[in-house]
Structure formats: structure tokens, C-alpha cells
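Protocol step 4 of 6: record predicted structures for both targets in the notebook before any analysis. Target 1:
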Amino acid sequence: MTRGPTLAAHRLPSIPKPLDAFNAAPADEARALLLHCLRSLRWAHRLADHRPYPDLDSLLAAADEAAYDLSPTDLAQALAGETLPELPADAYSAAHMALSAARAAYEARFGHAFVIYLGDAPPDECLDRVLEAIRSRLANDPEEERVTAADELRRLARARLTASLRGAVPHPRSPIRCQFDHTR
């Protein structure tokens, strides 16, 4: 029995990988994505201007380095773009009051929003971790807290950038989805 002609192999269209799309995007689009990860113009420009990145690890290393190099003014700009996630409406009122009071005390002491990376925290522990961290960090002197806040921002930016380039688009102000409505 003879067979008829074989069909040519069908090739699926090449779908650009998120990092390839980021590398090829116009500079203003790349900076816009980066600003959703960390609200520092200097950081976003630096990363966008040094494209292309061969892999995600290279981009993340560059992001870390750029975050470590933030000046006090750059850090203040980035912190101004951050807010602590809100509790869900059905959370008990004492939790709302405790978080609001702790946040107000922190902002009065340091002059900027409290930031914390919670990406590795189980959702049922987020509120406790935030309250514990705010209370603990209130004892920091301003310079020590600036260093801590900068490191938390770096960790947030890294996680947001990773999520964005893996196709999940995090809310720009989220601590990478360990918000109190945990969706990851």
C-alpha cells in the first residue's frame, strides 16, 4: 500500500517571550513597565537604557544593582509611590485601627510610606507580619530605616519585575500579592 504525499511540517508561529518583548520594546514602554515595579525614574531609565538583557537573571542583577545605587532623592521618589495594601472590608475593625495607627506612627516618624516585601508570607500571616514589622522598625534610627526601606523596595521591585516578565501583572503597589486578599 502506497502512501500519498506527506504534508510539510506545520510550524507554530513564534510567540515572543516576555523578556524578548521587553528588550525590543520602545524605551518609553520599557520604562513604563519598570515604573510599575519601582517608582524611580533613575532606576527605570538605567534599566531601560542598558537593554537588551540575555536572560531574566541578568535583568534582575541589573535591577538589584540599580536599586542599591539609588540616591536619597531617588529613594524618596520611589517611597512616595508606595502604599501599604489595604485590609479587606470584612476584616475586623480592631485590625483596621491597629494598622492605621501603626502606619500613621511610622509615617510621622520617617516621613514616608512603610514598605515591606511579603511575597513569601502565607496569606493568613500578612497582617501580623506587617504590624510586627512596623512596630519593630519604629525603633530604628532614620538612617537604619532608610537602609531597611531601600532593601524592602529592592525586593519588591525584583518580585514585581519577575512577575511582570512571567506574564502575571502585579498591581504596582502590591507587595507581590501577599496582600490581605492573597491571590497567589
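Target 2:
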Amino acid sequence: MAHSSRGAGAPPAFPRRGRGAACSLASKSSRGVSSQSRGGETEMLERLLNKPRLVVLEEPKERGMRFRYECEGRSAGSILGASSSETNKSQPTIEIQGPIDHLKKVTVTVSLVTKDPPHRPHPHCLVGKDCVNGSGICVVTLNPHSSRRHSFVNLGIQCVRRKELDASLEKRRNLNIDPFQTGHSKGIEDMDMNAVRLCFQCEFDWEDGRKDCLSPVVSNPIYDKKATTTSQLKIGRFNQYRGSCTGKTEIYMLCDKVQKDDIEIIFRRGSWKASGEFAQTDVHRQIAIVFKTPPYQDQDITEEVEVSVVLRRLSDQMESESVTFTYLPHNPDPYEVNRKRKIKSDISFSEKPCVTAESAPAAELPFHLHPAMMSPNERLCAAQPGASALGEMGYSEPQDSNNDSDATAILNQLLEMPALWDMISNPGLTSTMPPSFEQGPEANAVFANMDGNFNQNFGTYTQDFSHYNDLQFNMLVNEIQNPQPEGRDSPSGALQVKTEDEP
């Protein structure tokens, strides 16, 4: 019933638009036809048969929009079209199709109804530039002769708190908005607050002053993005994208919010399909799932096989975009133990030759490699046959162990060292030398058996160590830094302390 008088703050009255109104207008048109002449009767019948119709040319995008509360203090956003993309935005669009020769204007009322039939008025509200403040509906007027289409550029959905649901529905009834004449058939307990549909009610104004309306047209459902039961499913990433064709590969998946009792993981390729194995306890805080891969249909594959993996919600069969997973041929030795053993058995290891006091005569060894000056580890090092002992010690010229002149060549090489001649010319050192020092070829035995006094006097001279290799230089430094105390081998060398009792 329309208001006869309204105050300044009263909401505007809207004519009842529903099945009953459409039928009543149709009956009036039929009575007008009976009173017309035969020529007018034919024209009216053509109007009824060729009546224009409203078509949803661009459906709203089902997923990705968030329903916002009024108290959030920000815009509710705009409903995008189904074909909208990041680079090309589109909006829900309607079109008037059919003959429009005698049509004057078209009035379209848009409201929200429930997702499931019977489509009852939904308590959530539409907001935007074409919406009357506080009404929750949108009303646009079109001139079909200038444009048959209309896009709802700024149309958003504002959700209502639960304690305000009854008040919102009562406001809708006062505006005569009940497209399918459902009345008070059901309460709000079974309403889905996370899904709505756009309902378009179209009213025609003809040139002769008559009015006509069409049956309501509903769009595809629109789901709230923040609700886990209706949100868009999305796979973030896996910790690994390859696994054995025998299955049982444990994978960690990151995803958007999911319900642990309303989700499954599908592997498929062609006609083959299998589900990932996981329990409800493997769903971590709705954003991660730990599962095991199912075995592939062919266990004898000889090359890699790629399959698609999707998340699917059980309640509405909604699926996410697919992610590729690769099945690998079965490997009975995953840690490659047998291969490593074979490689190890094929490799022959050889020890590095080294010099020992036992493998070479004392005359062939440099003065600092005397057996008394070698460490236990160096004494245990075994030289391979045929290897030159002195060649490993850094001499520039190779030595032949079978040549009788080896000892003479080594002695000549030692005598060419300036530091050695400086030590020999030291009076303190020559006084300790045996008389046989200057007796020809026997001198090489003296160098091979030189005692610790040589090391003590060696550190007092400035020498050129560039011709020593690393091993020789380290041993000389150790001998200089750690000289042997005098009388170390003699028990009588201990320091005697005199007591008061002694005379």
C-alpha cells in the first residue's frame, strides 16, 4: 500500500513490482484489446508477443569481492564483471532486447535476493551513486532509443550485522521490494549471509501512457571473499613439485583460507584422477596443508610425467587454479648407495711418497732431516719404490738413487750455502768439531750426525731462507724457538740448591 502523504524524512514509495503486478498489467492490456477495433486488436497482440525483454549481458564476478560493514568507514567497493581483468575492468551490464518502437522509457530496480530459491529479499544492502541512501536498492532510468545497455559502474554490497537483519528486511518490505512475492514464508535462520544474487526488475512506460513490467531476472551468485565457506580457493606454493610415481611423497602446501572438513586435493591427468592423503589435523590454521601424494596409475614409467593438482571444496565443488606436479620413475636406490659404492671401487688410491730415515742413507738426507730430528709421524711415512726422496724436499735438480756421485753432489750443494760457511767459520763451532772434519769425503758423515749445538748457533746469524721449502723452514723455526737446554740428558745437570744446614 503506497503512502498517501510522506514527511521530509520518509523513504520514497515504490510501486509493487512482482509476479502479481505483471499479471495484473497483462490482464488490463487484454481487456483493452477486446475494446479495440480489429486493426487495433492485431497491433496489441503483436506488442504482447514481441514484448521487449531484459538480459544480463555481463554477469557479476562471483569471487573476489569482500562484503564490508557500514562501521568500517570505507567504500564497499564495486562489483566487477565476470570478464574483468587487471588491465581491463568491466562491470555488470544489462541490455533491453526486442522491439522498442513505441517504448518511452525503462525503469530498472536492482535489489539483493538469496542465492537459493525461492529467492527472498536479502538483508544486505546495495550502495552506490544510483542507490537511495538507506534504501538498500538501486534504481536507474534508461532511454532505450539512445542506449539499450547500462553498466553499473559504482555498485557495492554492504553487509548488515546480525542484530540489524530484521530491521533491514522490514525496510525492504516497506518499499514494496519482494520480487518473487515470498512474503514471510521463512525466517532468517537458514539464510546464507555470505552469498547473494542481483535481482533486476524492469518496468516499461509506453508512448500511450500504459505501463508494463517483466518477470524478475536474477544474476549469478556473488560470494563474500572473507568467508572461508565461499571464498575463492587458491594454491600458494609447494615445498617440492616432484616425487616418485609410487606416491607417499610428503608435501607442504600453502593456500588461502580453507575449511578442514570441506576440502580435498585432486591429482589428475586425462581420465585418471586420485586424491591426496591427509587428515583434518594436517590442515594448519586454514592456510597450510601437509599431505602425501597418491601413487600414479602407471608404476613402470620410464620418463617424467606431469599432472595437475587442484584444491576442491566439497560443499559447492569449487576448484582452484591448477598447479603442475611431476611424477618421477621409480628408483629402488633413492640415496644412490650402490652407485657411490661402484664409483669408490673403480677409483685406485695412491699414497704420496715421502722421505724417511730408513729409506735413504744418512749421507743423502739434508742436515735437518736427520733421523734424530724427525717427528714420529715422519718416521712412519713410507716412501714408494722408485720415488726420489730428495725430489720431494724441493731440490731443483732431480737425483738418481743409482748414481754413485749422489753423496758428492749433495755435499757440494750444501757447501754452496753462505750460511753454512758462516757457521763453519765460527770459532765456537769449530772448536767442537772432531779432528776428522777436514779429512776429505768423510765430512758428509759429520753433517748427517750433527748434534743440537748446530741448532743453537744457527739462530744467531742472518740468513736467506728463500731456497728452503715449507717443511724445511718450519723445522728450522721450531728448533730455534725451542732450543734443547744444556745437560738435558744428564741427570747431573739439575740445579742444586744449597740449604742452611750445609756448611
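Step 5 preliminary note on target 2. The two ends are 142 Å apart (CA to CA). The first strand starts at residue 53 and ends at 58.
Proceed to step 6 after PI sign-off.
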